Amino acid sequence: MVEVIWTEPALQELDAIAEYIALDNPAAASRLVQDVFEKMERLERFPDSGRLPPELPHSIYREVVIPPCRVFYREDQQRIFILFVLREERQLRAYMLGNS
């Protein structure tokens, strides 16, 4: 099994998404956060279960889609780093280039 490590930017972005959802529906925000953590735990046993991001087909990064989020990660030997959480409707390349 590999170790799953959440980076601070990923946690902050997930928190921001949950806070926004909580403005209208606190229970849904709580369910989302719980769902994201539960789904990402499967990477401990199945690190390649995420897909390659369609925008980056030859990348070292993978993603898991948990609506309304896309969770990006990369594997480094016996560790998985959760790097970023992005709302599904945002464009990945535009966001990475700072043109969101």
TrEMBL record:
Keywords: Toxin-antitoxin system. This is Plasmid stabilization system protein. Belongs to the RelE toxin family. The keyword Transport does not apply. It comes from Cellvibrio japonicus (strain Ueda107). It comes from the Bacteria. InterPro entries: RelE/ParE_toxin, RelE/ParE_toxin_dom_sf, TA_system_RelE-like_toxin. It holds the Pfam family ParE_toxin. Transmembrane segments: none annotated.
